[in-house]
Specification:
With about 375 residues, this protein is α/β, with parallel strands linked by helices. Helix content is about 40%, strand content about 15%. It folds into 2 domains: about 120 residues, Rossmann fold (3-Layer(aba) Sandwich), CATH 3.40.50.300; about 240 residues, Winged helix-like DNA-binding domain superfamily/Winged helix DNA-binding domain (Arc Repressor Mutant, subunit A), CATH 1.10.10.10.
Length: about 375
């Protein structure tokens, strides 16, 4: 059974509005499957173009809007898959949308749209963009009941939710997610950016994986890797733009005791994280279960917010006296605070937080109530 992605309907609602639609996401995340599902609804006067094919690259090498239009002929819906492979694609997309607004172009990019500065100046105000995540638990409702989801929860934390591995057996899934992590994840970074020390990038991402759930010090990373802080910061930005990791900043408004300039770093998929440190052990054999659960809940919440068209500011909170809250959302001037607990433990919200942010709400997210948190 083909699982329909949450953003498909949103994308279809944005078609034919004289805007280019751009879909971001890492390789193997399901972009091609998604655009082909959309293409099926517009089979007449439409075309799919794999921009990694030499004939497509050659056909789109033209520098004028007329020549580009001639390449597509009378097609009205154009899919450009992995469009970052086309030189000056931003300028070419601008020429097409400006001169042929009746055309609808959907372009996908495995992160390197941003890495190559493709959508900077040329397409300002001319596009809608979407990020495609690994499967969400909400999407998996199409094939799993709530009981089945609960049974599979530990597997999701260990092996992740990349589309290709969902129906695979345990060993095959471990092998495949490891292949994605080691062979595909950094491909576009190495292609489009000058990375002088690939081994440093690899070691950096492994260090970040081992520090999951903890505050990350660029100074410590710099010392551990033997490179400058500037190099660490640059590589982390590249990994963010490649949709491998994301960061949460510290929240601070009123208290002197609040940590202000700090960050935590998480992974878009727990399976990728575990593959990078080569650890798919059962949860009862691990010391990082709390951090995995925290990562899993935060990224699933991000998927849920995307589905609901919500864009809250996201933070963690901590004081110098070690009082902390795992995750905060700020939406419409209101704070929502969440603690993530895999094991059954009583948790109290820090009194300093309650006293300072009186209109905030607080919730503990556990195995017992996580589906409500993510619904």
């Amino acid at each position: 059974m083909l699982i329909k992605r949450n953003i498909q309907e949103k994308i279809e609602n944005d078609l034919w509005k004289k805007k280019i639609v751009i879909i971001y996401g890492t390789r193997q995340i399901g972009k091609t499957t998604l655009v082909n599902q959309i293409l099926k609804k517009y089979s007449e006067n439409s075309g799919y173009y794999n921009c990694e094919e030499s004939d497509v690259i050659e056909g789109l090498s033209a520098g004028t809007s007329t020549a580009l239009k001639n390449f597509f002929g009378e097609k009205k819906l154009i899919i450009l898959d992995e469009a970052q492979k086309i030189r000056d694609i931003g300028i070419k997309l601008k020429l097409l949308i400006d001169n042929y607004p009746e055309m609808q172009i959907i372009a996908t990019g495995s992160s390197s749209f941003e890495l190559a500065n493709i959508i900077n100046e040329p397409l300002t105000g001319r596009f809608y963009s979407y990020q495609l995540y690994p499967f969400s638990l909400f999407e998996l409702k199409q094939i799993y009941s709530e009981v089945e989801t609960n049974r599979l929860l530990e597997r999701f934390l260990r092996i992740g939710l990349y589309p290709e591995i969902i129906k695979m057996g345990e060993q095959e899934a471990q092998k495949q997610i490891s292949l994605i992590a080691n062979n595909y994840l950094f491909k576009d970074i190495f292609t489009f950016q000058e990375v002088r020390n690939p081994e440093v990038l690899t070691k950096l991402i492994q260090m970040l994986a081992l520090q999951l759930g903890n505050e990350v010090s660029f100074d410590e990373l710099s010392n551990g890797l033997g490179v400058s802080i500037e190099t660490v910061e640059r590589y982390i930005v590249l990994l963010e733009r490649a949709f491998v990791i994301f960061r949460l900043p510290a929240f601070s408004r009123n208290l002197r005791t609040e940590i202000k300039k700090s960050r935590k770093i998480y992974f878009y998929d727990c399976g990728i994280r575990n593959a990078l440190i080569r650890n798919f052990n059962s949860l009862n054999l691990r010391s990082d279960v709390g951090a995995l659960w925290e990562n899993f809940c935060i990224i699933e919440r991000m998927k849920a917010n995307q589905r609901k068209d919500l864009s809250p500011n996201q933070y963690f909170w901590r004081t110098y006296s070690q009082k902390e809250i795992d995750y905060l959302e700020e939406q419409d001037g209101r704070l929502s605070a969440f603690e993530f607990k895999w094991s059954k433990k009583k948790t109290k919200i820090p009194q300093e937080f309650l006293d300072t942010y009186k209109n905030s709400k607080f919730e503990v997210v556990s195995k017992e109530n996580y589906l409500r948190f993510l619904d």
